[in-house]
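Query structure, 236 tokens:
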């Protein structure tokens, strides 16, 4: 069986890559577009089976037009993403036709659960859930929030797991402190000055990662962090 086709519509590459990595826990082929014209072209050319859309793009108008666009199989099932966690935002998404809504910042485990559920509900298609994926030398078990490195096994907090997914999904790329804050804590979080550094330090300690000779998480002084890529990176 070929992987299910998922289109993500958003203008934040860091978030798009995190979604792609999370969906590696199922059999999904993911492509990302940034705006309505690219989304319309991909609908015609690729016929995605599911869309994950930042409903805050274009003040929600992009979501409206996407849901109104004809496809060979009818309306495309859609998960809306929003930074507004209030009831009004959720009702608005459902009124516009979204099948589900998730509030940013995104929890990878919740995204994969909702995506699998929509595929089963819409198409009767059972997507195989793979709890463990490989990130280079690390094996990450999203179901139990555990990471295996060599013979060792460690448990992650919810925040640590989200932080690891964010950095690993963007391996080799600088992820700034602002991007980490927005994608793990949320845009409205009033951060302490060292909250990011403290959580990165805790994660490094669990991974036995020496910041002076990092195997996994490298510091980019004054800017943020970069996950060290390997040839086997992000292989399911």
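Result returned for the query:
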């Amino acid at each position: 069986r070929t992987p299910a086709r998922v289109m993500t519509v958003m203008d934040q590459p860091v978030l798009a890559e995190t979604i792609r990595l999370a969906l590696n826990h199922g059999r999904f082929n993911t492509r990302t577009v940034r705006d309505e014209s690219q989304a319309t072209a991909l609908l015609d050319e690729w016929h995605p089976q599911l869309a994950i859309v930042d409903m805050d793009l274009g003040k929600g108008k992009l979501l409206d037009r996407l849901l109104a666009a004809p496809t060979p199989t009818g309306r495309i099932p859609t998960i809306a993403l929003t930074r507004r966690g209030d009831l009004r935002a959720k009702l608005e998404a459902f009124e516009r036709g979204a099948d589900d809504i998730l509030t940013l910042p995104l929890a990878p485990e919740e995204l994969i659960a909702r995506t699998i559920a929509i595929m089963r509900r819409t198409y009767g298609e059972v997507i195989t859930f793979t709890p463990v994926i490989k990130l280079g030398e690390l094996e990450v078990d999203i179901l139990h929030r555990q990471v295996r490195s060599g013979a060792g096994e460690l448990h992650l907090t919810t925040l640590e797991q989200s932080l690891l997914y964010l950095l690993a999904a963007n391996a080799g790329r600088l992820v700034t402190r602002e991007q980490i804050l927005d994608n793990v804590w949320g845009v409205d979080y009033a951060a302490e000055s060292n909250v990011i550094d403290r959580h990165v330090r805790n994660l490094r300690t669990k991974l036995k990662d020496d910041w002076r000779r990092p195997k996994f998480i490298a510091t980019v002084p004054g800017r943020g962090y970069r996950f060290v890529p390997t040839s086997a990176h992000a292989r399911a």
